[in-house]
Amino acid sequence: MCQITIHSENGVQAVPAEPGQLLGEVLREYLTAFAMPCAGNHTCGKCKVRIDGAVSAPDEAELRLLSEAERAAGVRLACGCRIEGDVTVTLHEAGASKIVSWYETPAFAHTENGYGFAVDIGTTTVALQLIDRESGKVLAERLAENAQRGYGADVISRIEACKEQGVSVLSNRIADQLEAMAAECLREAGIAAVSESVVTGNATMLHIYEGLDPFSLAVVPFDVQSYFGCMSRRTLAGAPVYLPRCVGAYVGADIVCAVLAAGLLDGGVQLLADIGTNGEMALAKDGRLLCCSTAAGPAFEGAGLSCGMPAAPGAVRAVKLENGVATYETVNGEPARGICGSGILDALAVMLETEATDDTGYLEADWPVGSSGLTVTQKDVRQIQLAKSAVCAGLLTLMEAEGLNASEVQRFVIAGGFGSTMNFDSAKAIGLFPAALRERTAFVGNGALGGACMLLMNHPLREKSEQLAQEATELSLSTSASFMDYYVDCMSFMEF
Ligand code: FES
Question: Which of 91, 126, 145 is the last residue before a domain boundary?
Fold first, then answer.
């Protein structure tokens, strides 16, 4: 048995490991916040750690993904080195952040009393709030990276991991994370117990939380094991948990909650985009709801980029041009450690304005983000290009299905953490959304969490949300010829 001594922002921890074991597996087991976005496939280069001790020699993938300076400093890919003796590991990145979640909801009656948790399990980020159900006051809250992120950045990697490791491994990991976050909140608020909780999320996250095999979600015809809209088999802090209903395999309970929080069915033609690792969208017209989901990838959440990170302290969150020079701002004004979704969007808008790149996204050399020491690479530009094209093509396909164009949409609601921090002018400049929507745009923040709070405080709304999910139509983009045409057209970085 070997000893692994881990230095992280949480202090020093010594854990056992078998000779020959992959270091990434050990870190994933003991550190819930340790990220392996490509699930250890040696393609993302994001699992870098500094190592001192006996490990296997770097393979070809590591040599490709690490610079000479990094190798000289003892940096390795945790998914690439096997343990051969005692090792000391230093982690570079802070794992969890305590940035709170923001959202808006329409006025609604509070029919319940006592305390409860509202939870949104995002593929990348988990948000939890302890709420006084009578007053609606948020008593404590936590936002952390999903503890399953060591099993890949997107839902497909998580489903694969469930197949390989067993659903219970990932299921217990998220359940344990929620229990730990809930316990912290109860301690902070000085409250002994809650009456009930509402846990929302996309269909994959809810399947895994419930311990249901999510494999059918990944293969044609994309069947769910459950739509939910029921009580969970789990409890949270010892109290029952309600799971809102999903529309289908790729339009989850999170979008249903966001529709509720955005008041999307309150009248007129309204469009909602919730941009996370999946771009989920809904169009309300004449009381009908048409929804779709596109695989935007995690780039807008800061994952999958060469220097990407969540919107935590030290993340470049805004970039602008001042007297012809690119300047930047970071979260909390801390030294730049990486770039988050809103920052990369701004960076691209500035790169287009200064002609560092053109509408094809071609980049002659890595682009320095001001004096931050960070750069945007050609691969980063391509990641954003694919993500923005998927989102924009999804919106256009939804509108086309209802015979609408952008100028006929009366209200365009953007939800999601990225949505509430991004600069719409940058989004418009790179062609993320049709420019005609600019004047009618509203931001609701984390609509999924907002909707979960509404369902926590008002039981009759649960029936309404279940009916809404049951009656909504899911538009399959994978078989849509229009979507493919738009997807190709939307690749260009240009306003339209
Ligand atoms: S390169 Fe190690 S997890 Fe992606």
Answer: 91
